[in-house]
Amino acid sequence: MSRFASKLVAGAAASCLLLLWATPAWAHEQRQVGAYKFTVGWQHEPTYVGQLNAVQLVLHDAMGNPVDDVGNPPTLQVTVSTGGQTSPPLTLEASFDPDTGLGTHGEFEAAIIPTTAGTYRLHFTGTINGQPVDQTFTSSDSTFNDVEEPTSIEFPARQPSTADLSSSINRLGPRVDAAKSAASSAHDKASTATTLSIVALVVAVVLGGSSLAVAFTARHRRG
After folding, report:
1. Confidence at residue 36, expressed as pLDDT on a 0 to 100 scale
2. CA dist 139 → 32, 40, 52, 118, 177 (Å)
3. How far, in Å, are 33, 38, 66, 95 from residue 62 at the CA level?
4. Distance (Å, whole) CA 11 – CA 181
């Protein structure tokens, strides 16, 4: 390979590395929102049911600089929805800590544990330094991951999925109801039998007492 060709290859490789460093290596959706660039997705991907995760927002200004200050007090928040259910508003915590210098500039996270598989929507509302924000990002093959069951990575034994457990509970429901009904019926029968036994005992005592009284009266008269 000629020296010129080698330089071209090296330059192309360097450009690719710069491109990889400049953009997220995970599945996120990027969108221009007014004066700011939003990069939105999950903190950990793939995203599994029952595993601690977080909604992740990476924020840059028009010049591409990371934005750490979203206003004082910050009003930007996110709600997470799936299957007709919506979470309470979640607080977006800044990753970068100015006191220690730790964390990532422009990155904000809201912790969450997804409890069902499927498509999720992330709805951001509030303001960024006075600019109103009302944006919804939806998981998909072309944006960020849907939430999935962790069965593909479980080892050595696979645990039943949430859907499997729900199906099992639904199948057991009628059996549990039937067992409760039978137990209630048996209890009622036992209670009835106990009551009848008590009544019979009382009657026996009463009748027995009356017989004794009659016998005592007859003997008293003969005397």
Report:
1. 98
2. 17, 10, 17, 9, 39
3. 10, 11, 10, 21
4. 78
Q: Find all residues with CB under 8 Å of 145, minimum gap 6, and list them.
A: 27, 41, 42, 45, 46, 47, 139
15 part of a folded domain:
no
Q: DSSP alpha helices (H): ranges in the chain?
A: 3-22, 162-222
Residue 16: strand, helix, or coil: helix
- Residue 88 sits at the vertex; the CA angle it makes with 146 and 69, to the nearest 5 degrees, is 85
What's the rounded mean pLDDT across residues 12-30?
55
Of the candidates 120, 132, 129, the residue with the CA atom closest to the CA atom of residue 56: 120
* Structural domain ending residue among the three candidates 127, 155, 183: 155
Q: Verify that 53 and 97 share a domain, yes or no.
A: yes
Radius of gyration of the chain (CA): 37
**In percent, how much of the chain has pLDDT > 70?**
74
Residue 171 burial (CB count, 10 A): 9
Model confidence pTM above 0.70: no
Could you tell me whether strands 29-33 and 77-82 are parallel, antiparallel, or unpaired per DSSP bridges?
A: unpaired
Examine the fold and report which residue of 95, 125, 155 is the final residue of a domain before the chain moves on.
155
Q: Report, in this order, helix, strand and coil percent for the chain, each rounded to 5.
A: 40, 30, 35
